[in-house]
Amino acid sequence: MATWLLTGANRGIGLELARQLHARGESVLAACRSSSTELDAVGCRVVEGIDVADDRVGEALDEALGDEQVDVVVSNAGILRRDAGTGIDIDAAREQFEVNTLGPLRLVNALLPRLGRGAKLGFVSSMAGSIGDGPSGGNYGYRMSKTALNMAAVNLAGELEPREIYVAVLHPGFVRTEMTGGSGNVDAADAAAGLIARLDELDASRSGSFVHADGRELPW
Ligand SMILES: NC(=O)c1ccc[n+]([C@@H]2O[C@H](COP(=O)([O-])OP(=O)(O)OC[C@H]3O[C@@H](n4cnc5c(N)ncnc54)[C@H](OP(=O)(O)O)[C@@H]3O)[C@@H](O)[C@H]2O)c1
Asked: Number of structural domains, the chain?
């Protein structure tokens, strides 16, 4: 049994991660801003008040976790603010950087001291942030926030290699959640199962790569 800490665990992909990990007997710390009836029903530990956009998120985590170690961190919380077609929305871009890019960095700052050899960091990013995939326009803030997250994650993978802490950059697929308004070609349960499989197989040889939940390696 390992201790997994997930952000954004109250709904969507994060909720499914919590469900499946708890069901297979892992110790799950389901972090969220506010819980949901669905998350409460899972039966895992829920850590409320974890807003990754808040500079004090580290203090909130310290208070909730005490001296507990963590084996796997899944930085899943994220937002999508679609550009409305009236130009690039600068305020929305700033907001998405706060949550999607700086949020995971705050999480790393807070949790690194709790990670030992063999620990894993999974960053739920998006193909929308892939430059190599040939972006087709729109959603500037979302795309850029995920591209920048990818850089941070790969940078960390190199830095953490000597400590034998491994990093995965993950794309869950096009998933039917609130973020997509229910559109998509995969359910959150299947996406979560794939993400867990990718984290289970994460090791030194795979650290620092960008992978789809289905196992395909993706272009940066
Ligand atoms: N769905 C897709 O097709 C898709 C594709 C590629 C990547 N992704 C990525 O997958 C991840 C999960 O997305 P999803 O589809 O499950 O979206 P979702 O259903 O909209 O869930 C987003 C989660 O993030 C949380 N969150 C938002 N802002 C937060 C903040 N400041 N602090 C802490 N938690 C915050 C939400 O909590 P609240 O309820 O408190 O808002 C919610 O738990 C995101 O990083 C997203 O970018 C999704």
From this structure: 1
CATH number, domain of 191, equals 3.40.50.720
Residue 157 and residue 101 in contact, taking contact as beta carbons nearer than 8 Å: no
3-state SS, residue 148 = helix
CA 178 to ligand 1 center in whole angstroms: 8
Contact 53, 103 (CB under 8 A): yes
Q: Is residue 219 part of a domain?
A: no
For residue 30, the 8-state DSSP code is E
Ligand 1 pocket test, pick from 10, 13, 100, 130 with the greatest ligand atom count within 8 Å of Cβ, gives 13
Phi, psi (5° rounding) for residue 209?
A: -105, 165
Q: What is the DSSP letter of 75?
A: E
pLDDT at 186: 98
| pLDDT the model gives residue 45 | 98
Interval 147-161 mean pLDDT? 98
